[in-house]
Specification:
The radius of gyration is 24 Å and the shape is globular. The chain starts with a helix and ends in a 14-residue tail after the last helix. It is 67% helix and 1% strand. Strands 1-2 form a two-stranded antiparallel ribbon. The protein has one domain. It is an all-alpha fold. The chain has 18 helices and two strands.
């Protein structure tokens, strides 16, 4: 029998719980989770390679570092707290669903569900790509960008100074890196493994290798150049940050970071209508330093090897990885749908043959590492998966492509990022992708105000 008293009490209880939940969300939003703070979390995740040697804990032999947690945390805040950050991403979700469907086909046809490596790799792909779908719902106004730009510049100063101070301490033989017990990759010692850097110890920040540190700085660099192009930052803060970021990249001795930074500035000038005198002076000093200062001898040496086609790292990272993208596979199934997440060893003979042709050495067997995200996707999910990925990139970055002159630093960095690193199943890639997407679709329609840093 219907009881109005019970119904009333139940509805009041439900309403009370709903009010408390809304109050909690409102308080959390006021205290911490604004659109700007969510964007800061995404930038932290995108520069996560800087922190990827800090060991927090292990799960079944898998090392968890801060950058594994920052990006999913930002997605959680977007999902639970800021419901205003809503965007129509139905087309992107559909493409993402079909990419998942490829893996479901693998499970049904070949029984990958019993493969531990497949399950772990698929779980990473699901968590980080799903976090990406949540994060790109964030929409920033021009006012948000005005608040975000100086924070990004200060963050770049902070990351750069850590590397610069570390390099100076290395010069005096002081082991200024994370203690071995708290590191993921304890086998790498910056004070000993210096044969590629002319005897110098490269700055690595809290990363596992110098190139990761420099690429993290390039994330900040591309963002600052974008902020400069849209006119939300200028003056001393911008100039100091750009100068220190370039210095941080140079003391990393990372050829990939130096090349990315150089072409980021070139793309910035090529697409700029106004004069950028300080940036031009900075780039000029950058080039002069590379070709005249003794500390840059190892960099010049490697550049000459690259130009001569004799640098093993460049051959492995760029030439072999790009050639592998268009190489045939042993079976039609792996060509169309890939090997399956984490199971690229099924085509080991295929890419071993390609790498041996490029490197002409048996050492290539132990050095194989795909540094190309396009190639990695083709290996894992085949031509079908790569085609779906390209459709998703188009749908995601279409707003930025339509205003490409303003977004050139972001679009160029995202493109070259694919050819410099192969970390597809990591939060580093998906957070970089999310950051480019968020900044590229930001609202730039408001009038220019007073520029921070002036």
């Amino acid at each position: 029998m219907y009881s109005p008293i019970i119904s009333y009490e139940s509805s009041r209880s439900i309403h009370s719980k709903g009010s408390r939940l809304k109050s909690f969300r409102g308080n959390l939003r006021i205290l911490f989770v604004t659109r700007v703070n969510l964007a800061k979390l995404v930038i932290l995740g995108a520069t996560g390679l800087f922190f990827n040697d800090i060991l927090l804990f292990n799960i079944s032999g898998y090392s968890v570092t801060p950058y594994h947690l920052i990006f999913p945390l930002s997605a959680l805040f977007v999902l639970l707290v800021d419901r205003r950050c809503v965007d129509n991403i139905s087309g992107i979700v559909m493409v993402w669903f079909f990419m998942l469907f490829i893996e479901i086909v693998h499970v049904m046809m070949i029984g990958y569900g019993l493969e531990v490596e497949w399950f772990r790799s698929f779980a990473q792909f699901f968590v980080y790509s799903f976090s990406f779908l949540l994060v790109i719902r964030l929409r920033l106004t021009r006012g948000d960008l005005v608040a975000l730009a100086p924070w990004t510049a200060k963050f770049g100063v902070f990351l750069s100074l850590i590397g610069i101070a570390q390099f100076i301490l290395f010069l005096f033989g002081i082991p200024a890196y994370i203690p071995v017990d708290f590191r993921v990759r304890s086998a790498f010692d910056p004070l000993i493994d210096t044969y590629r850097y002319g005897g110098f110890s490269p700055a690595i920040g809290f990363a596992t290798e110098p190139s990761y540190y420099s690429i993290a700085l390039c994330v900040v660099l591309s963002s600052l150049l974008f902020f400069s192009k849209i006119g939300v930052i200028s003056g001393r803060l911008q100039n100091i940050s750009l100068s220190l970021i370039l210095m941080g990249i140079m003391v990393s001795y990372s050829l990939s970071g130096i090349i990315i930074a150089f072409f980021l500035f070139l793309s910035f000038f090529a697409s700029s209508s106004g004069k950028r005198i300080f940036a031009l002076m900075l780039l000029g000093f950058f080039v002069w330093f590379l070709f005249n200062v003794s500390y840059a001898d190892p960099i010049r040496g490697r550049l000459s090897l690259v130009l001569a086609g004799d640098d093993r790292s460049a051959l492995m990272r760029v030439v072999a990885s790009s050639r592998l993208l268009f190489s045939g596979t042993s079976r039609l199934e792996t060509s169309l749908l890939g090997t399956g997440m984490g199971l690229e060893y099924r085509e080991f003979e295929t890419y071993l043959r390609v790498y041996l042709q490029v490197l002409s050495s048996d050492r290539a067997i132990s050095e194989i590492k795909v540094h190309n995200i396009f190639t990695t996707i083709k290996l894992l999910q085949g031509w079908v998966g790569l085609a779906l990925y390209m459709v998703m990139v188009w749908l995601t970055l279409r707003p930025a492509i339509q205003i490409w002159r303003l977004c050139v630093p972001l679009l160029f960095f995202f493109l070259i990022y694919h050819f410099s690193i192969g970390l597809y199943l990591t939060p580093a890639f998906w957070s970089v992708y999310a950051l480019i997407s968020i900044l590229g679709k930001s609202d730039l329609s408001a009038e220019h105000g007073v520029l921070p840093g002036d």
